[in-house]
Amino acid sequence: MTQRSPGGPGPDQTPAPTPSAAFAGFAEEGVDTRRAGRLWWDQNAADYVAEHGSFLGADDFCWCPEGLRESEARLLGDVAGRRVLEIGAGAAQCSRWLVAQGARSVATDVSGGMLAQSLVLDAHLGTTTPVVQADARALPFADDSFDVAFTAFGAIPFVADADQVHREAARVLRPGGRWVFSVTHPVRWAFPDDPTTRGLTAIRPYFDRRPYVETDDAGIVTYAEHHRTLGDHVGELVAAGFRLERLLEPTWPPGHDRVWGGWGPVRGAVLPGTAIFVCTL
Ligand SMILES: C[S@@+](CC[C@H](N)C(=O)[O-])C[C@H]1O[C@@H](n2cnc3c(N)ncnc32)[C@H](O)[C@@H]1O
């Protein structure tokens, strides 16, 4: 969850970018962001879980900063006995919850540092959550090997080629399988990543696809987030062979005061913060 969201700074660099970044801002389209994701998440894994772990829950399935839980939303359907793949799983809280529901769930993530946090949670809870380190764009699984695949803010915002994530999800799902993913609502890209009223004035073209990046002293991109319009997301899904069944835009619940990056009750009352795509193959 980002726009320097659940994990980073924002398009207007408010809140502040990673302190060590030499540059933070919008790069030209086509800038090489391939090395960014894994490195940043490895280095920030423990801090990320320390900051957001209590909200996410060690063995709970949270779709977004609005706090929508799978126990309530049931977007994956009945998971008992189903083969479920989590992509960009982080500390695998969602998969841990799914295993407890009887799913045959596997959590994958490109960052060994994030998956190590899953082992920490397992050790603490006495649970066993299967994890595999893998880039979402090259999954180490056979064709047709899952009934359901999903990600809650994993992988897709952080890669230039999200179409390849969708193609891999389509490849490993059986025909009729379900693919569900949450991302920052695309409309947010036009606004400052600021949870106060400052974040309610559009300052950038929604159609500007340049990625937000941070670079180190050598000019290497250490963190990247990529914007896609709603139409871009749908186009990539359809090209990968999916049918879009539902598009959820969770509302901000009354009494929910937690601020996460640019998300919070002030903007939540006015703007959508999350988009959840529910698709079938
Ligand atoms: C915001 S976290 C989402 C995880 C979890 N749902 C959460 O809310 O904490 C983003 C995750 O995506 C992972 N990620 C980034 N790029 C990836 C890629 N190319 N393949 C797989 N995972 C990736 C990161 O390592 C990180 O664990």
Automatic annotation (TrEMBL):
> Pfam families of this UniProt entry?
Methyltransf_11 (PF08241)
* Keyword terms, alphabetized: Methyltransferase, Transferase
Query: What residues does the Methyltransferase type domain cover?
Result: 85-181
Q: Does the keyword Transferase apply?
A: yes
Stretches for region Disordered: 1-21
Pro residues composition-biased segments? 8-18
A GO molecular function term, named singly, is: S-adenosylmethionine-dependent methyltransferase activity
Some GO term, biological process aspect, for this entry: which one? methylation
The family database entries (SUPFAM superfamilies) matched by this protein are listed as: S-adenosyl-L-methionine-dependent methyltransferases
What name has this protein been given in UniProt? SAM-dependent methyltransferase
Q: Which organism is it from?
A: Actinotalea fermentans
Q: What is the lineage of its organism?
A: Bacteria, Bacillati, Actinomycetota, Actinomycetes, Micrococcales
